[in-house]
Amino acid sequence: MRHLLSTADLDHAAAVQLLDTAEAMAATQRREIKKLPTLRGRTVVNLFYEDSTRTRISFEAAAKRLSADVINFAAKGSSVSKGESLKDTAETLQAMGADAVVIRHPASGAPHRLAAMGWTTGAVLNAGDGTHEHPTQALLDAFTLRRHLRGGEGDLAGVRVAVVGDVLHSRVARSNVHLLHTLGAEVTLVAPPTLLPLGVGSWPCATSFDLDAVLPGVDAVMMLRVQGERMNAAYFPSEREYSRRYGLDARRLRLLPGHAVVMHPGPMNRGLEISADAADSPRAVVLDQVTNGVSVRMAALYLLLAGEGSEA
């Protein structure tokens, strides 16, 4: 594995290997001393052109626990605000000795361009590009599902997952559909017609407009944030109407099977796509997702920079 740009690039073996490696990383995090010497002397750059809390801090924690040096780069307050291009920024970081670049960018395809054009010789990890993909979020979601539904082993064959909400603007949804399908899960996208992207019929998943009909038959429901900042039109009549039709509340929690879990990539719009009852329910594994994100990103950095032959 040279880069981590899209979950569509991962075959079954590579996806399971990442999850198994993350499980090993999680085991090391239960020790008194959590740091590993694996990436000592390597430099990881967090190149973030969009605001982020969970992803940026998670990648920083993951790199530091592997003993890498970390440089955090934010577009705000940098030469980007003066008009510097992605190419020039990347080449500057390369000249400073970056071994890996973790990039979040508002333009879909920016990480792929960074990797393909050779502006950096280091590994490129996509931390979210526009409305395209967010592969490490999908990996931590799969890791969380595997732990809760499969005892932390194997794949997700036969697991039924509903992904609900603003699919149109969600890079998390796209990455999850590809990865969960690769791992054998059955995915159903639930959204109003206006929030399903063109061409969704070619995705390896089912679609539905009726959340109440889908919930009784799933093992997990993943609620997506309504991304108002990316909306330039009226995609639904009102927030109240959206919440009534597609929000997860206490009534809909009771429709779920007893073993089913509730997920959300965060940040949550409480009262819109998810109620406080659902967000704070014992079924919710949202904080587990955050915790597992560090282990998954440790695994990704380890496999990209240390290689399969190294010992963690």
Automatic annotation (TrEMBL):
The Aspartate/ornithine carbamoyltransferase carbamoyl-P binding domain, residue ranges: 2-146
SUPFAM superfamilies: Aspartate/ornithine carbamoyltransferase
EC number: 2.1.3.2
Superkingdom: Bacteria
Pathway noted in the entry: Pyrimidine metabolism; UMP biosynthesis via de novo pathway; (S)-dihydroorotate from bicarbonate: step 2/3
Signal peptide: none
Family recorded in the similarity comment: Belongs to the aspartate/ornithine carbamoyltransferase superfamily. ATCase family.
Stated role: Catalyzes the condensation of carbamoyl phosphate and aspartate to form carbamoyl aspartate and inorganic phosphate, the committed step in the de novo pyrimidine nucleotide biosynthesis pathway.
Name the record gives this protein: Aspartate carbamoyltransferase
Species assigned in the record: Aquipuribacter hungaricus
